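Hi there,

I know you've been waiting on this one. I reran it after we fixed the sequence typo, so this is the corrected version. Both the input and the resulting structure follow.
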Amino acid sequence: MEVNETPQDCLVRELKEELNINVSISKFCNEVTHDYGNMNINLIAYYCTIVDGKIRVSVHDKYTSGLK
């Protein structure tokens, strides 16, 4: 998250940057923290809906939608 950015704002921004989609966030899902020893990761998940765009991978090597 960037300075003064909410988790929801961060999610919207990251999904636009990484997958080229715009989303609408509906509600909080879960939060999980894991200690890797040399760093802690805090994952905050929200339910959301794609409102615009088609998934286009810009950084990740592989993507499978799981949709049929």
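Quick highlight: The beta strands are 22-35, 40-52.

Best,
R. S.
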